[in-house]
Amino acid sequence: MLKIDRRIRKSQEALKKAVIELMLEKDFDQITIQDIADRADVSRRTLYLHYTDKFDLLDKLIEEHISNIREICESSDDAAGYTEMGLVWFEYFETHSMFFSVLLGSKGSVFFRGRFLEFFLGELEKDNSLSGGSDKDSANIRNVDIQFLGSAIVGVVEWWFKNGQPLPPDVMAQRIGNLLERNLEAR
Amino acid sequence: MLKIDRRIRKSQEALKKAVIELMLEKDFDQITIQDIADRADVSRRTLYLHYTDKFDLLDKLIEEHISNIREICESSDDAAGYTEMGLVWFEYFETHSMFFSVLLGSKGSVFFRGRFLEFFLGELEKDNSLSGGSDKDSANIRNVDIQFLGSAIVGVVEWWFKNGQPLPPDVMAQRIGNLLERNLEAR
DNA sequence: CTGATTCTGTGCATTAATTCACGACTTCAA
DNA sequence: TTGAAGTCGTGAATTAATGCACAGAATCAG
Predict the structure, then answer these.
(1) Which residue, among B3, B45, B34, B37, has the nearest Cα to B18 in the 3D structure?
(2) What pLDDT digit, counting tens, does each position of A62-73 carry?
(3) In this structure, is the CB of residue B53 within 7 Å of any atom belonging to strand C?
(4) What is the pLDDT at residue B184?
(5) Are B152 and B175 in contact (CB under 8 A)?
(6) Do A43 and B6 count as a contact with CB atoms less than 8 A apart?
(7) Cβ-contact A90, A169 below 8 angstroms
(8) Could you tell me the residue ranges of all domains in chain A?
(9) Is B13 part of the contact surface with chain A (CB cutoff 8 Å)?
(10) Are B128 and B142 contacting, i.e. CB atoms less than 8 angstroms apart?
């Protein structure tokens, strides 16, 4: 854990917060660099010290969240069931609900949705409950299953945010846990 | 209106916010420079760039508020009645209620209370309804009246904050306005 | 009292952020 | 089509903030 300069952390956090807030108000295309800098209360020049453009800023923000979720998964990996795993997911989603609401709800969300799905596919890859044979056909069948479950999870998360998080994280985790167990262990 | 460097404004605002927050939690004596810097998320060194010590920080914060109120008074001075004047006061108090709650509520408030009273005495000095003669006796009588009304106002504001602002600003302004009119014009 | 610990105020070298200015590019209305 | 206004990305000089280290003062427990 290397120590990061306070100023860098504050500038980046302000910029990340700013872009999310602005995406809540208007389309990503409509947001200018100046908008972001103003909202972050930071010089326009400072943004360029950290990011090449607004796309880079959004990319890095997305990668950071994906990376956080991955770390959370790995740290709470000790023989945790699917329900427990789902709980840490949904708790993370809730903590950063502004980010996920914006990026799963708005029009420009296509890129993030893909990145999000990709993450879950990677997690499912690791799951040994889904180990088919090593021949070509059974490998593809395994891929079908992975795509099936990954899309299902992403779809549920999207639904959750688009409907204003109508159920608490623990209930969501319980239900997702049940659904995953049914599909992963009964084979 | 000279432009102040963004970094200076942010550092000072963070430090001022921090010291108020901390005074809500513990006695001013118990607060260390490190506490303030940590809460403000700023280097300890930065505090010394702007203030000589924590007392200086608190002093400047107090002076700033007094100065703000004075400016507000002057700008809305155009033939405004006592009720109108009281309204801008109480609206300001409400906007900065954390500051006033802390500094009129805590033990270490003695200094601020004095400074606050001093301000109102100055405002009352300006009031021509309170113009006695120029001889020694009537000047002293005038001072009695000023002390009387100044203490009354401060007392009411103290009461308002110690009781969690039980009445809205406009009601407070109305009542204070009535009381001042009764005492200032009926002579 | 005494030793340990924390807090304070400061010097110093380094790094980040800011302001300002500039030319190129885009947008959009006249 | 042209001109005005806004945006972008960058260079350069300046200023503010940081991290670190240190010595002296204050605080506190044994």
Answers:
(1) B37
(2) 999 999 999 998
(3) yes
(4) 78
(5) no
(6) yes
(7) yes
(8) 77-185
(9) no
(10) no
